[in-house]
Amino acid sequence: MGNQDIYVGLDIGTTSIKVIVAEYVQGQMNIIGVGSQRSEGLSRGVIVDIDKATVAIKAAIAQAEEKASVKIERVIAGIPANMLKIEPVSGMIAVGDASKEITDQDVKSVAAAALVRNLPPERESLSLSPTEFIVDGFDDIKDPRGMIGVRLEMRGILFTVPKTVLHNTKKAIEKAGLTVTCVVASPLATAQVALSDGEQDFGTVLIDVGGGQTTAAVIHDHKLKFTDVDQEGGEFVTKDISVVLNTGFKDAEKLKRDYGNADSLATTEDETFPVAVVGKTEPVMISEKYLSEIIEARLAQIFKRLHQALQQANALDLPGGIVITGGTTAIPGIVELAQDIFGRAVKRYIPKEMGLRHPAFTQALGLINYAAQLTDIDILVSSVLPTPSLSRPETKQPTVETPRRAAAKPASKQPAPETAEPKAEPKEKKQSWLKGFFGNFFE
């Protein structure tokens, strides 16, 4: 990029709201401001009180504005994967009776044709991502503009979410005096920074352990193929500590942060610390091992439920293994616990940027990276959605030219549709994991 562009990522989480302001100068991202505030009006990743959420958003934005010394008016927002549906779509239009150059309007028209479907009244389209265009039978085209053809086809992936989730998020942001320039399914944004190019290509399970819920996502061929949301997260660990030790919630959170460990085998009974117990004047001494057993029990339950869902989807044998991130993964020993539960190699992603070296900032950072990598085609296609949300930053950004391909390999007569969600193989067939893996992710 030749000019300077400002991007603002807004991560509305259950326990905290994080804002990251970044500038892109010639393709280099520089963080210039960060804001973080305690969340209000959210439950398990979803806004349940718009007014309270608005106040918290304003506070986080004000903090980021002060640090970045810029006025924030436009933000990129993440949408939780609760009840997210992924489905392949396709559309076709006649460009003209005679061959003519394909224009922006033709791209919009074919994208609109792909959206001709009846959605349930309670659901709304979140985003539409093109996977390829086909011009007169030649496929694997990323940008058909300027090419000559009679028939234009588009294949893509449509994400839909409950209307309530999308509406409440947008409404709270708008009431905070901001404009939403882009809404992104949270796992897609997180994958932009937490996974390498190879991990996104060959296939990886990405687990985001947040405060109110835990989201597992399967990323393969740079596409989101499957999601599963467990309605428990780090906040439930804190509640367990509070109840078992009979201490206040704030004290329990502090104990989790200062002394917590998710691997009870790594702690001992000898190391103790004082705990303020309700109804007692003197603190009670508790061992690190006892605290660790409380934390381990809840996290093990979460991981076991996700393990079952991922196993049914035949996703645990993907080459990329498992990557975990999110604020709760800051607890020591959580990688070892995850490896024990999943039986696979597990690594934790922590942002490397100065001032963001905590896994809680992964999603907000991913939102910025996702928006910065949007192409003109992505924006054109998304503009046909009922509530379009993709746009460029306010500063002028040069167009990134996509190499034109005059022709590609001819498309097969019966192309395999994009897999929306992996399906488990019948148990009685006793097929090898490799056959099941290829059957689910390469069809």
From TrEMBL:
Q: Which CDD domains does the record match to this protein?
A: ASKHA_NBD_FtsA
Taxonomic superkingdom: Bacteria
Query: In what residue span(s) does the SHS2 domain sit?
Result: 7-194
**Which UniProt keywords are given for this protein, alphabetically ordered?**
Cell cycle, Cell division, Cell membrane, Membrane, Stress response
Annotated Low complexity bias: 408-419
Q: Which positions are tagged coiled coil?
A: none
Membrane topology, from the record: Peripheral membrane protein
Spans of biased composition, class Basic and acidic residues? 420-431
Q: Which parts of the sequence are annotated with region: Disordered? A: 388-443
Output one GO BP term.
cell division
Which subcellular locations apply to this protein? Cell membrane
Family of the protein in this entry:
Belongs to the heat shock protein 70 family.
- Oligomeric form and interacting partners: Self-interacts. Interacts with FtsZ.
In terms of PANTHER family, this protein maps to: CELL DIVISION PROTEIN FTSA, CELL DIVISION PROTEIN FTSA-RELATED
Q: What does this protein do?
A: Cell division protein that is involved in the assembly of the Z ring. May serve as a membrane anchor for the Z ring.
Q: What is this protein called?
A: Cell division protein FtsA
Starting at the broadest rank, the lineage of the source organism is: Bacteria, Bacillati, Bacillota, Bacilli, Lactobacillales
Q: Which gene encodes it?
A: ftsA
